[in-house]
Design brief:
54 residues, mainly alpha, 3 helices, 81% helix
């Protein structure tokens, strides 16, 4: 229903599921890595924007 709901639901999946579905776990781990890299870049740009606008 809201931005990020599906992504957050994936984090609620239990350990046993991931043990049985290692390929899916690897894919989720890659999505997380991609998100973290994008977040860092975006935060840098936001901080620069805010600094330049003050």
């Amino acid at each position: 229903m809201y931005t990020g709901d599906l992504f957050c639901s994936v984090f609620k999946v239990g350990k046993e599921y991931w043990k049985e579905h290692k390929e899916l776990k690897n894919e989720v781990d890659e999505v997380i890595r991609t998100y973290e890299e994008a977040r860092e870049t975006i935060e840098e740009h936001i901080n620069k924007y805010r600094k330049d606008q003050l």
